[in-house]
Amino acid sequence: MDVVRKSEALLREATRRPVREVRRLALDLKRLWRVWVEADTARYNKIFIAGCARSGTTLTQRLMGCFEDTFVHRAEAKYTQLDMLDRPEANLVVKRTERGHVHLAKLPSAVGLIYCVRHPLDVLTSSHPESRAQRRFHVTPERWLAEYDALLRLRKTQPRRAITYIRYEDMIAQPDAMQERIARAFDLKPRIRFSEDPGNPIRATSLQKWERNEEFRTYLRALPPAFLARLKEFCDEFGYDMPDWARG
C-alpha cells in the first residue's frame, strides 16, 4: 500500500533528524493516516451495532450475515475495529463491546449505526451464562442507565446522525420486515430471509417473562422511583407500556 510505504520512509527519516524535524514528520504521518482512513471509509459500508446487553445485539449481529457481500466480525469489538478490517466484502459489521457505550458519542459520522432496544423490564430480568455465578440478573440498573445516557449523549453530540433503531420485540415478531428496514437504511441486499436462516432461531418465549414470574416482579417493584422514572422516559420514546405500579 502506497500510504504504508510512505509512512515507513518517514519513520526511517525520523531516526536521522533533530527533535523539531521529528515533530514535523510526525504531523506528516498523521496526515497520511487520515488520508488512508478516508480512502478506506469510502471503500467500505461500515455498520456498528450498539445497545444495552440483552437487547438483541447478538441476534442482530448474527442475522446481519443474511445479507449479500457482508462480513460480520464475530467477536465483540470497538468501532475502531472497522478501520482495521481488510476484507473483500463491501459491507462490514461490528458489534459493540461491554464498555462500548462509553465512547459511543465519538462514533465517526461515516459509520452507520444500528441501535437495539428492548423493553427495559425484560432487559433487567434477563440472565446470562457469563454472569450467572456473580448475580441473578445480567444487566444491573447502573449498567442500563449508563447505556441509555450514552445514547442520549450521542444524540446531543451528533444531532443529525441517522440511527436505525431495532426493537427486539419487532425482530422476534416480524424478522423479515426488520430485515427490509435494515436493508433500506444501509443499501444492503438480502441473501436469505431472517426468518429462514436455520442458524438463527428466533423465539417468542423470551418476551415479557417478568409478567409471568413473581420473583421478577418483586425485584422490579423494589427499584427506586427515580430509576423507574427513567425507565418510563425510555418506554415512552420507544413505544413500550409500563405497568401501573411502575408509573409513579
In terms of topology, how is this protein built?
Layout: H1 2-14, H2 19-43, E1 45-51, H3 57-63, E2 70-72, E3 91-95, E4 112-117, H4 120-123, H5 141-157, E5 163-167, H6 168-173, H7 175-186, H8 209-212, H9 214-221, H10 225-238
Parallel strand pairs: 1-3, 1-4, 2-3, 4-5
Helix pairs in contact: 1-2
Describe this structure in words.
The protein has 248 residues and is of the alpha/beta class. The protein has two domains: 1-43; 45-203, Rossmann fold, CATH 3.40.50.300. The protein has ten helices and five strands; from the N terminus they run ααβαβββααβααααα. The chain has helices at residues 2-14, 19-43, 57-63, 120-123, 141-157, 168-173, 175-186, 209-212, 214-221, 225-238; strands at residues 45-51, 70-72, 91-95, 112-117, 163-167. It has a five-stranded parallel beta sheet with strand order 2-3-1-4-5, sandwiched between helices. The model has no long low-confidence stretch (mean pLDDT 88).
